[in-house]
Design brief:
The complex is a heterotetramer of chains A (218), B (39), C (217) and D (238). Chain A has helices spanning 2-19, 21-41, 45-68, 77-85, 90-120, 130-151, 158-169, 171-186, 191-216. Chain A has 218 residues and is mainly alpha-helical. Chain C has 217 residues and is of the alpha/beta class. Chain C has six helices and ten strands, in the order βββαβββαααβαβαββ. The longest helix of chain C has 16 residues, at 167-182. The chains are: A mainly alpha (218), B mainly alpha (39), C alpha/beta (217), D mainly alpha (238).
């Protein structure tokens, strides 16, 4: 099982590295979003510095969904049949796709984060905590996105439906992440918000593993 | 708008939507029934 | 392996929203038998193959595939012994043929051949470093046949086996089917090329009106 | 209880609740605007109840595979989205004269809005999937994921906005609400809940009829492939 997961992660990441969808399309798209927001709300550098982290998380949430729905993660029926017949457990497939997406989302977060720092000049007090917060957010988004992708696989209107499934469910992730960074800025405790993120991740992991089989059969 | 105006507004929306929803259920049920009868 | 038939299903029906795909299918494939399956476009051949591969649960019907009752969790245990080639290739487009085959052999419980040996056997030894997306349809089909050499299934299910194949490549189909038959397994070959199929199968049936009928001679 | 009894009871109770809500004296503090609460509170209660029922239906469906539970989940979600929408709308209408703004970032408001969108997503998913079994499985999975997340959404939103004044009704030792007004509120909750039950039953019956229309056998049923015949051009049948 673990062997299967590792093999699948490697081939998914390699597939994405060659396709380059995250690096050449999704990251630039997120960067453009960060660039146009000040054009719409005005160039008040103090204001931008204050809302920078919040905007960063919004961009991560909305554009991160695209990362989990990249072409290289979509498994068409022939590939899925092949993996099933090779005896790959649906839960192993969920785990592999989720972990691969988590790693790519981390890359996405780092790239978009760097752009946020350059454009908005936010306060970076306590940035060491990001080493905990960023992976937790990436994992949560990856799991929601992977679940949404398998829920909508093979349906018409899939590309429009998946983000609608993800966004409201991801509210605790957004709140947890945004409040944690806000807490860092004002020097308040952030443990509670890190805990929210961790709980979300654990619940999603349970849901993903337990429902992989019924989803497989549908 | 007076207080009663706001109350009337709220009640109109609530009861209007509920009546509309009941009507839509009735219409949809009828449509399915007639479709089933046609077969 | 035992002498129980490789495939033995009766009364298989499959209902999908607004359509009945299969009505009442009885099908038996003995050990060491290759069966040709014909039928018009849209008659449900692909779906029947997916049922035999335990990937689709029939609405009605019972029977066994490789000894495991279909539609039960038990059927999952025989999946690694089933090989299915559909009309679309099950390849990751951005991985090379080598990498695709290596993926299969590392997921496979007991690979019968290395990835590169299998590719060489189907005549793709020189194309191993090409990405699947850059290969022609015929090459992708050959890569799929190489996958069968790696996994060595006891039940071989070939959908539209001869589409896009040059004469040499149809020799591969003949070899694969002959091999599985010699092992005492079974094969079901779906194709529209009746002459070519007749050469490799012992018996043929037609799927028509949701039922199996003997093929007209 | 037959379907008819529930429906007639719900209808009667709604009329009584409507009349009582308009007849009771105005609230000491809020005046006549308090009357909006007689439709707002029961709608909000049903938003939660409907979601709970959807969750139960999803779990039991996945455990048993009985499509009845899936229909219950789907019906409850559809009726729930109506009441959640009404709870939001009446909340806005109450907020404008009382607070001076339509919307405030109150924890309960944000939570209700989030639930509304989760419901909408759930219904959109149901509409997108063909076939009763497939639809049931996928929507049950989403129903469970959503149900697991709702408490987390609840706590995170509450923590985000700080704790708010708890509901004032459910404290029998220290009643802060006049008996007639309390009666009007409880009557409304009772009537709306009965209406919810009647609507869910109707919706389930409709779902059963729809499923039997698409999935059940028909005498003149076409088998796959029957729609394809020999071509008219190119020499016909080989």
């Amino acid at each position: 099982m673990i062997h299967h997961v590792l093999v699948l992660i490697r081939s998914q990441l390699r597939n994405e590295a060659r396709a380059g969808e995250v690096a050449t399309i999704i990251i630039p798209f997120g960067a453009v979003a960060l660039l146009v927001i000040p054009l719409a709300i005005g160039i008040d550098t103090d204001l931008l510095a204050r809302i920078g982290p919040g905007l960063f998380w919004v961009v991560v949430l909305l554009f991160g969904v695209i990362v989990t729905h990249r072409q290289s993660a979509s498994v068409d029926r022939p590939q899925r049949d092949m993996l099933t017949l090779l005896g790959v457990d649906p839960a192993a497939r969920f785990a592999a796709t989720t972990i691969a997406s988590t790693l790519l989302l981390l890359v996405f977060e780092l790239a978009v984060g760097a752009i946020t720092i350059v454009l908005y000049d936010p306060d970076l007090t306590g940035w060491g905590w990001l080493a905990v917060i960023l992976p937790l957010v990436a994992a949560g988004l990856a799991m929601i996105g992977t679940l949404a992708a398998s829920l909508t696989s093979g349906l018409g209107g899939r590309s429009a439906l998946a983000p609608l499934l993800v966004a409201p469910i991801a509210i605790p992730i957004l709140l947890g992440a945004a409040q944690a960074t806000e807490g860092l800025r004002v020097g308040a405790g952030i443990l509670r918000w890190v805990l929210v993120l961790a709980v979300v991740d654990v619940l999603l992991m349970l849901a993903g593993v337990l429902t992989a089989r019924p989803l497989e059969e549908s | 708008m007076s207080d009663w105006g706001w109350v009337a507004f709220a009640y109109t929306i609530v009861y209007g939507v509920l009546i509309g929803y009941v009507a839509s259920l009735v219409v949809r049920t009828r449509r399915v029934r007639s479709e089933a009868a046609r077969r | 392996m035992s002498d129980a038939p490789v495939v033995d299903v009766t009364g298989v029906a499959l209902r999908r929203p607004n359509a009945l795909i299969l009505r009442d299918v009885d099908l038996r494939v003995e050990c060491g038998e290759a069966l040709g399956l014909f039928g018009a476009n849209g008659s449900g051949k692909t779906t029947l193959l997916r049922i035999l591969a335990t990937l689709v649960r029939p609405t009605e019907g019972a029977g066994t595939v490789l000894g495991a009752p279909i539609g039960t969790p038990h059927a999952e245990s025989v999946r690694p012994r089933i090989g299915l080639i559909g009309h679309e290739a099950a390849l990751y487009p951005n991985l090379t043929l080598d990498e695709n085959l290596a993926l299969v052999s590392s997921l496979c419980i007991r690979p019968a051949m290395t990835a590169s040996a299998a590719l060489a056997a189907v005549g793709l030894g020189g194309a191993g470093r090409r990405r699947a997306a850059h290969c022609s349809n015929g090459m992708r089909r050959r890569a799929e046949f190489a996958r069968m050499l790696v996994t060595q299934p006891d039940l071989l299910l070939l959908d539209e086996a001869h589409v896009g194949l040059d004469p040499e490549a149809s020799g591969i189909v003949q070899h694969l089917v002959g091999e599985v038959v010699a092992r005492g397994g079974g094969a079901v070959v779906v194709s529209h090329e009746r002459e070519r199929v007749a050469r490799i199968v012992a018996r043929s049936v037609v799927l028509s009106d949701g039922r199996i009928e003997p093929a007209p001679r | 209880m037959t379907k008819r009894t529930v429906e007639i009871g719900a209808f009667g109770a709604m009329i009584i609740a409507f009349a009582v809500g308009l007849a009771v004296p105005p609230d000491a503090v809020q005046g006549d605007l308090q009357r909006i609460m007689y439709v707002h509170v029961p709608s909000a209660w049903l938003a939660y109840l409907a979601f709970g029922i959807t969750m139960i239906g999803s779990v039991v469906y996945l455990a048993t595979g009985n499509l009845r539970w899936d229909r219950l989940a789907g019906a409850s979600a559809e009726v729930g989205v109506v009441f959640t929408g009404l709870a939001l709308a009446t909340g806005l209408i109450w907020g404008k004269p009382v607070w001076g703004v339509w919307w405030t970032w109150d924890a309960r408001l944000v939570l209700t809005a989030a639930m509304f969108f989760v419901y909408l997503a759930y219904l959109a998913l149901r509409r997108g999937v063909d076939g009763a079994d497939r639809r049931a499985k996928r929507s049950a999975v989403f129903g469970i994921v959503a149900a697991l997340q709702i408490p987390v959404v609840h706590f995170s939103v509450v923590w985000w906005r700080g704790l708010h004044q708890p509901p004032t009704v459910l404290r029998p030792d220290n009643p802060q609400i006049d008996p007639p007004l309390l009666f009007a509120l409880l009557m409304a909750v009772f009537a709306f809940t009965l209406a919810y039950a009647a609507l869910v039953r109707r919706r389930m019956a409709l779902a059963t009829a729809e499923d039997s229309l698409t999935d059940a056998p028909r005498p003149d049923e076409q088998v796959a492939g029957a729609a394809v015949s020999a071509p008219q051009i190119g020499g016909g049948r080989r």
